[in-house]
Design a protein that fits this description.
Layout: E1 4-9, E2 18-25, E3 28-36, E4 57-58, E5 61-64, E6 66-70, E7 79-80, E8 93-98, E9 101-106, E10 114-118, E11 130-131, E12 136-138, E13 146-150, E14 155-159, E15 172-176, E16 184-189, E17 204-209, E18 221-226, E19 231-235, E20 243-248, E21 256-261, E22 267-272, H1 275-281, E23 290-295, E24 303-309, E25 319-322, E26 325-329, E27 335-339, E28 347-352, E29 366-370, E30 377-382, E31 386-392
Parallel strand pairs: 7-11
Antiparallel strand pairs: 1-2, 2-3, 4-5, 5-28, 6-31, 8-9, 9-10, 10-12, 13-14, 14-15, 15-16, 17-18, 18-19, 19-20, 21-22, 22-23, 23-24, 25-26, 26-27, 27-28, 29-30, 30-31
Length: 399
Amino acid sequence: IEGLVVVASTGDDFGLGSVTILERNDAGWATSDKLVGPVAASLAALVDGEISCADGMADQFECDQVAIASFPSAPEYLGSLPKTPGSRGNSWRDIKVYDNHAFIVADGAGQHGMQVFDLTKLRSVEYAPATFEEDAHYDGFASAHNIVVNEETGYAYAVGVNSGGETCGGGLHMINIQQPTHPVFEGCFSDTTSGNSGTGYSHDAMCINYQGPDTKYVGKEICFGSNENKLSIADVSDKANPMWISSASYPNVAYAHQGWVTEDHKYFFMNDEGDENNAVQAGEPLPGTRTLIWDIQDLDDPLMVKEHFGETFTIDHNLYIKGNLMYQSNYVSGLRILDISDPENPKEVGFLDTVPWSEEVEFDGSWSNYPYFESGTIVVSSGREGVFFLKYRPVDLVP
C-alpha cells in the first residue's frame, strides 16, 4: 500500500519476533503500529496428582520409569525483578543461587551486569504481584552467557563475557560473593589455547574443591571449562595467580558446550551442542546423541576415553550428575536418565520426552533440568512446552 512500510524484526519480543508498520507523513516516516504474535496455545495442565508411566506413556508424553508429578498451571506469582535499566531484553539468561541470594546475568543484553537478589524476600510478600528491587548490582562486566558458583568457596565465575564489552577473554571472570550483597572482582583466567577465537572463551564451566585421585591437586579449587573447541582445566585457588593445568580436544569437535564431574572426581561428562547438527548437514548422521566421557584421574593429562551414543538422535544440551545417575536435557527428546555406575559404559534407565511430536535435530525442547532436590523431584524446562516436575520411578525387579 502506498505510504506504508512493514518491517519485520525477527529478534524482537524476546526472540518471538514482531512487525512494525511505518506510515509516511509530511515529516517523513513514523511508526503507526507494532504487532507481536499471540501467545501460543499451551498444553493442558496436569495438576491432579502424579501420573505414572504406564505402557510407555504418561498422559501424552512417551516415557520409561519417569512419572509426571505435575505440569503446573497456576503457580503463585509473587512478583517480578525488572531487568537492569538500560539493558536489552533477551531470553538468554542464567541464574545461580548462593546463601539465599540469586545472581542473575544475561547474554547479549548490553549493560546488564550481575543482579543480586535476596530470595528471603519471597517468604513474606504481602501484596502480590510485587515489583522487587535488586539488593546489589555488579557492573564489572556487561553481558555474560553464564554464571557459575562454587558454593563451598563462595566464588562466582561469569563466563562467556564478550557481548557488550569483553573481559577475561570470555573466560573466567572471578567474583568473591562471600558477602552476597558486596560482590568483589578478584581476577581473570583465560586459557588462550582454547576457544574458537583463541581468547579462552568459556561457554560453561564447573568449579569444585577437588578431592579426586590426583594427589597433586587435592584441596585445590579446580575449574573445568567447556571452551567451544576444548576441555580446559585450571587451578583457581589463588585468584590473583590462577594456573593453567591442561586442555584437550577430541574427534569431530563442533561446540564443546557443558559438562559435569562425577562425585568421585574421576570422570567428566561433556556434551557437544553442534556435532549432531553437523553430522546431519554432512549427510552422515551419528548412531545417536553423543556424550563425551573424559578420564580426569590425571588432571595434567585428561583422556577422552569413550563416545557414548544415546538411544535417540537429537541435540544434547545441559547434563548434571547426582550419585550414579546422569540427567541429560536433550532438546526434543526431553529428559534422559543414564546409569553411570560403570562410567565408561553408561546405560539409559529412564526418560520422559517433553516434545513427543518431534524427533528432529533442532534447537527446541528441553533446555535444562535440576535433579538436586531432597524430595527426588526433577524440574525440567522445555522451551515451548513449559516446566515439568518429574519423578524417577525405577521398577524394583524381584528375583
